[in-house]
Design goal:
With 348 residues, the protein is α/β, with parallel strands linked by helices. Among the domains are: 13-47; 100-265, Trna Endonuclease, Chain: A, domain 1 (3-Layer(aba) Sandwich). Helix content is 74%, strand content 7%. It has 9 helices and 5 strands. The protein has helices spanning 2-23, 28-110, 112-130, 170-177, 181-206, 222-231, 233-241, 249-325, 335-339; strands at residues 136-141, 147-152, 161-164, 215-218, 244-247. A 5-stranded mixed β-sheet has the order 1-2-3-4-5. A hairpin with an 8-residue loop joins β2 (147-152) and β3. α3 (112-130) runs parallel beside α8 (249-325). It is flat and about 180 Å long.
Length: 348
Amino acid sequence: MLILVIVALLAVAAIAYFAARRAGSGPPDRMERIIEAQAELSGQLKQSESSVNERLESLTKRLGDGLSQQTEKTGETLKGLHERLAVMDSAQQKITQLSEQMVSLEGILSNKQARGAFGEFQMESLIKDALPPSAFEFQATLSNGTRVDCLIRLPGPPGTIPIDSKFPLEAYRAIQKAETDIDKTNANRDFSKDVGLHIKAIAEKYIITGETDWAIMFLPSEAIFAELNTNFSNMVEDAQRRRVGFASPSTLMALVNTVSAILKDGQMKEQAGLIQKQVELMLNDVRLLDDRVGKLQIHFRQAGEDIEGIAVSSGKITSRGQKISDVQLDEEVSPEELSQPRPHLKEV
């Protein structure tokens, strides 16, 4: 736009120049008209230039404001996008850590020794949270020399309860991985065999006549507990015959809560015996107090009777003194009369 204005000014200047040259040989009034037209055109050009500058300034301001607003919105959008990317990055890190933990857990469960430690850790956590330290012992030794993972001590019956935490998990994992019917049949057979051998080992090692009446096999998963009770009822019956019970994490929690209630009931009975003994002693003290109060009442009664006797004697003395003071003596009494002995008052 500014270039067009400059070109127009140059064209006007050229026209004025040529008109002036032609006017040099023409009349003066024509020259004046040309000068006036030039001045009017120059004013219009200045006005147009001013209007164009104002429009350019307004357009520049609007463009600047629009660019500023767009820049702010773009910054806010980029900030939000950055925050979302940070959240996504954090979530990705957590997923990676969880994947590593799952891989670690799979390694633990695939290793027999580590698997036993994992089940033992679960069992210890459940028991420590629910029972007092005096009610259980980890890695306890029985009278036959065998060492059990945990031994819960209760007042008999039921007495002491041994708990084994080393469940054979490999066969159950084979059941989960089986795809064909043949694989499932073989996995079920191996699982039944391993669990049966483990039940027999627990019964032989931990159930001792006169010491332990039954034992518990801890299952580290609710799924295994459900699988045994749903599809292996023969294993459940065999365990019951051998006095071995199954306990998943939830059922073990229920068991230790019941044990805690039994212990509290025993403590309440012991405290009730102590309270009863103290009440008997208190009743004896009350009887002694009653005897002493009776004796004190007798003393008070005797003292009251003595006080009444004293009051009677005092009244008699006062009455006789009054009688003596009321006796009328003669105005003149000879010395012989005074020297004569007076009769004694009769004592009461």
